[in-house]
Amino acid sequence: MRKIVVSEFVSLDNVIQAPGGAEEDTEGGFTHGGWTWQYWHDDIGAHFFEAMSQSDALLLGRKTWQIHGGAFEPMPTGDPFGDAMNAMPKYVVSTTLTTASAWRNSTLISNNVVEEVRALKAQPGKNILMDGSSVLIHILVEHDLIDEYSLWVYPVVLGNGKKLFPEGLHVSLRLLESKPLPSGVVLMRYARA
């Protein structure tokens, strides 16, 4: 059975919203977009390439899929990360999209999300990688479908924003790895307990 691996940039107060840029996701009046940049370290990029090599599919919520697709779909061939993102099969969960044609190699999941994700996990293959996608992650964690969390924990408290874990949910995890970086970011890898 395949594993679902959630890979996130997360603040100390559990926020995952708009780590990459000021206009990335301003929903709810979020004004802290781009909060990760001052802490960048090359080990973060190397880790993402490694995670991609251990995965053969992306599972994303609609908003994250649209943000990623808008960035990667138009990239010319030759960018290593862009090529990897565009080539990998992608599954987008949405009740509002009618097609997944805006980003190549994408399949739309619009009904029976939990059952469809269980069926994806049951297929042979490598890991299924997720990032962003807070609404989808909340659904999957509530149904115990996430196997591993690869969290880049940043030394910042944002005060508001979309959270990785939903309020009121108890989740027990076991530590797989902890790796601090000189920038103050700590990689924390957890699996289900």
From TrEMBL:
It holds the Pfam family RibD_C. Gene3D superfamilies: Dihydrofolate Reductase, subunit A. One of its GO terms (biological process) is riboflavin biosynthetic process. It comes from the Bacteria. InterPro entries: DHFR-like_dom_sf (IPR024072), RibDG_C (IPR002734), Riboflavin_Biosynth_HTPR (IPR050765). Residues 2-187 form the Bacterial bifunctional deaminase-reductase C-terminal domain. One of its GO terms (molecular function) is 5-amino-6-(5-phosphoribosylamino)uracil reductase activity. This is Dihydrofolate reductase. It comes from Reticulibacter mediterranei.
